[in-house]
Amino acid sequence: MGVLKRFEQRLEGLVNGTFAKVFKSEVQPVEIAGALQRECDNNATIWNRDRTVVPNDFIVELSTPDFERLSPYSGQLGDELAGMVRDYAKQQRYTFMGPIKVHLEKADDLDTGLYRVRSRTLASSSSQQQPPASAPPSGAPSGYGYPPAAPAGAPPMPSSPPPGSRPGGYGYPPAAAGQRPPAAPAGGGRTRYWIEINGTRHQISRPTLVLGRSTDADVRIDDPGVSRRHCEIRTGTPSTIQDLGSTNGIVVDGQHTTRATLRDGSRIVVGSTTVIYRQAEG
What we know:
- There is one protein chain.
- By secondary structure, the chain is of the alpha+beta class.
- The chain is built from 5 helices and 17 strands.
- It has helices spanning 3-12, 18-22, 29-42, 64-70, 74-92; strands spanning 45-48, 51-53, 57-62, 101-106, 115-120, 166-168, 191-197, 200-203, 208-212, 219-220, 231-234, 239-243, 250-252, 255-257, 259-262, 267-270, 273-281.
- The strands form 4 sheets. It has a 6-stranded antiparallel sheet. Strands 10-9-11-12-15 form a 5-stranded mixed sheet, with no helix packed on it.
C-alpha cells in the first residue's frame, strides 16, 4: 500500500470524522502530502553514495479561508503530515539532519484552494546558531529552501541551485522550467534520472516509476484524462516507458504508442499533461 494511501486512511479515523467536514474546502490533505513528497524529491542532496539528505522543516502556506478552517487542527494535522514525510523518506531511503516538523501559515496572496510549500534543512543541535550556507536571492523566502552549514565533522554538501518556494495546487504558477537537479558527487559514475511536469522536477530514485491519477502512483498527476495507473517508466540502458492499459494511452515524441524507448528530452503526453524525461551522467 502506498504512503499517501496509508496517510488518507489514518486521517479518516481522526476525531470522529471532523477532518472530513473540515476538508470540504478545495485544499485536500492528500494534495498537501503529495506536495511535501515532491519537496523532498526536489531538494534531495546527495552527500555520498549511501546518504541522501532531504529537508526536515516545512511550512505549508494556505489562503486565509483555508487557514482559518484548518488552524484549530493544525497541530494534529502537522503531526500526521510529518509522519507521512517520515514514511516516504524511509521508502525512498532519504535521511534527515533533525526532527521533522510541518507548520501551517496564512498567506494573504493565495486564493481559496491554493497552497505553497517552503522547506529547509535544520540540524538537530545548535541549528539556531548555524549560519545559512548562502544568502537567499532577493524575493526568496527568508531562510527556507537553503540548507544550514554542515555540522562539525560532516562531509561538505554539494552546491545546488536554490530551490526557492514551490507552489502547489491548481491555478498557481509552476516553478521555473529548465531547472536541473543537483549534480552527483565527482567520481560517482552513475546516471541520474528525473522527469519534469509543468517545470517541477521529480527524481527517479528506483528502477521503475508509475505515473497516474491514483494516490498509489509514484508520481500523481491530477488530470481527468490520466488513468489511475497510467504508465510506467523503467530506467536502464535504454530507459523505456510502458502503457499500463490506460484509457487514453500515451504519446511519446509525437507518436501514439504502448511502449517506447526514452532518451534525454523525450516528451511524453498523458491526458492533457506533458512530461519531459531527463537523464544525465553523474
